[in-house]
Specification:
alpha/beta; Spo0b-associated Gtp-binding Protein, Chain: A; Rossmann fold; six-stranded mixed beta sheet; five-stranded mixed beta sheet; elongated; magnesium ion binding; GTP-bd; metal-binding; cytoplasm; hydrolase
Length: 426
C-alpha cells in the first residue's frame, strides 16, 4: 500500500530531577551535599532510510515518546541520559508543524536526520547549589519537560522528471519501456492509482529518475479525481514531460487537453507551472495522428514548447526522446526549490525565557503561570528555609515580584503560582 501522508505526536523525554543527598563517610563527619544532576531526556529524531518507499509504518502508530532521563543519585552521580528515539522515514519526506502548517524540515538524503522534539534538561543536584553562605542546601532542581508537538509528514517523491497528462494517454506504458518499473497497464481510466518511479539507465553519468503521476483531470487542484492527491510528487522535478494523446481517439482535443493540464498546474502552484516542460505527442502509430499532429505541433511551438512525436506502443521515437531528456536535465542544472523550509518554530510554551511567564489579576486574586515557573516549583522544597529563599530570589530575578506590584498587590493578598496558593509578603 502506498501511504504518502501521516500525522503523529512526538514528545521528547523529560529530564531527570536532581538529587538531594549528603556525603556520609567514615572520617568525613562534615561531608556536605552530594546530590548528583538528573540525566537529560532523549530526543525524537527523524532519520532518512532509503530502503523505505512509503509512510506505511507511521499510518497506524500515532504516538512516539522518547525515554526520560534518570534522576540524580548520591555521591554526585549523574542520572543516565534517556535514549533517543529514532523514527525512520523515506527520502523525500516533508515535515510540517501541525499547529501552524509551516514546513520545518525537508528530508532528502540517506541518513539525513532532524531533531523534531528535544528532550528536557536534567535538573541540578543539591551539590550544585552549595556556596559560601548556603553550605548545606536541602533542595535540588527539577528536570524540564521534553518538547512535544503534532507533526504532519508528507512524502514527495524524489525524481528528476515528472510525467504528467490526462488519464490513459500512455504514461505508464512509456515508463515501463524506458525503465524497469512495472506499473499496472490497461485501457481504462485511472489505471494508475499510485505514483510510480522508474530509473532510466543510459550510463553511470546520465541515469535519471522518472515519476509517473496518476492522471490529472480538470479541477484536480480543488480535489477532483485522483490527480490532486499526487501533484505534490512533481514539486521536486527539474523537468516536466507533458504527454498528450495525439490520436484524439477518446474524443478529446489534444490542444485543449494541453491547456487544461497546464491550468491545473498553475492553480496548484505557480512555481510548478514555470518548471521547464516539453510536450510529447504519444500514440503516433494510430491513423488519426496524421491529421492532428501538424496543427498541434504548430500551436504548441508558438507557445515556446518543444514537441516530440512518439509511439510508446511501437517504441518509435522513444530512444531519441530519453536522450533528449538526459541532455535537457544537464542544461537545466539546479533549480530554485519549490518547498521552502521555515526556521524552526516555538513549541507549545516550552521556552525558557521571561516571555513565557504570565502574571495576571483576576477579580481580587493574582496568578503566575509559565513553564519557567513550573520548573521553579518542581525545584523547590517549601519545607526547607534555604529552598524557600532561593525560590523567592528567583521570583525577583524573573521580574515576577515587580509585575505583581504593578498590578496592585498588597501584603497578605493571595497569589496562585502554578496551582499553589501563597500569601504575598515583602
Amino acid at each position: 500500500m502506498f501511504i504518502d501522508k501521516a500525522k503523529i505526536f512526538v514528545k521528547g523525554g523529560n529530564g531527570g530531577h536532581g538529587a538531594v543527598a549528603w556525603r556520609r563517610e567514615k572520617y568525613e563527619p562534615s561531608g556536605g551535599p552530594a546530590g548528583g544532576d538528573g540525566g537529560h531526556g532523549g530526543n525524537i529524531i527523524l532519520n532518512v532510510d532509503e530502503g523505505l518507499r512509503t509512510l506505511m509504518d507511521l499510518k497506524f502508530k500515532k504516538h512516539f515518546k522518547a525515554e526520560s532521563g534518570e534522576n540524580g543519585k548520591s555521591k554526585r552521580q549523574y542520572g543516565k541520559k534517556g535514549e533517543d528515539l529514532i523514527i525512520n522515514v523515506p527520502p523525500g519526506t516533508i515535515v510540517k508543524d501541525e499547529e501552524t502548517g509551516r514546513v520545518i524540515a525537508d528530508l532528502t538524503e540517506e541518513n539525513h536526520t532532524f531533531v523534531v522534539a528535544k528532550g528536557g534538561r536534567g535538573g541540578k543536584g543539591n551539590a550544585k547549589f552549595a556556596n559560601s553562605t548556603r553550605q548545606a542546601p536541602r533542595f535540588a532542581e527539577g528536570g524540564t519537560k521534553g518538547e512535544e508537538r503534532w507533526i504532519l509528514l508528507e512524502l514527495k517523491l524524489l525524481a528528476d522528471v515528472g510525467l504528467i497528462g490526462f488519464p490513459n494517454v500512455g504514461k505508464s506504458t512509456f515508463l515501463s519501456i524506458v525503465s524497469a518499473a512495472k506499473p499496472k497497464i490497461a485501457n481504462y481510466h485511472f489505471t494508475t492509482i499510485n505514483p510510480n518511479l522508474g530509473v532510466v539507465k543510459l550510463n553511470d553519468a546520465n541515469n535519471f529518475v522518472i515519476a509517473d503521476i496518476p492522471g490529472l483531470i480538470e479541477g484536480a487542484h480543488e480535489g477532483t479525481g485522483l490527480g490532486h492527491e499526487f501533484l505534490r510528487h512533481i514539486e521536486r522535478t527539474k523537468l516536466l514531460v507533458h504527454m498528450i494523446d495525439i490520436s484524439g481517439q477518446e474524443g478529446r482535443d489534444p490542444i485543449e487537453d494541453f491547456h487544461k493540464i497546464n491550468k491545473e498546474l498553475k492553480l496548484y502552484n505557480e512555481k510548478l507551472s514555470n518548471r521547464p516542460q516539453i510536450v510529447v505527442a504519444n500514440k503516433s502509430d494510430l491513423n488519426s495522428t496524421k491529421d492532428n499532429f501538424p496543427e498541434f505541433k504548430e500551436e504548441i511551438e508558438k507557445l515556446g514548447y518543444d514537441v516530440y512525436k512518439i509511439s510508446a506502443a511501437t517504441k518509435d521515437g522513444v530512444k531519441q526522446l530519453i536522450y533528449t531528456i538526459s541532455k535537457l536535465l544537464k542544461e537545466i542544472g539546479d533549480l530554485e526549490p519549490i518547498i521552502e523550509v521555515e526556521e524552526d518554530i516555538k513549541l507549545y510554551g516550552l521556552d525558557d525565557d521571561k516571555k513565557d511567564i504570565v502574571v495576571r489579576k483576576e477579580d481580587d486574586e493574582y496568578f503566575v503561570e509559565g513553564s519557567v515557573v513550573e520548573k521553579l516549583m518542581d525545584s523547590t522544597n517549601l519545607d526547607d528555609l534555604d529552598s524557600t529563599r532561593y525560590f523567592q530570589k528567583r521570583l525577583r530575578d524573573l521580574g515576577i515580584i515587580d509585575r505583581l506590584r504593578e498590578l496592585g498587590i498588597n501584603e497578605e493578598d493571595s497569589v496562585n503560582i502554578c496551582g499553589y496558593e501563597f500569601e504575598f509578603f515583602e
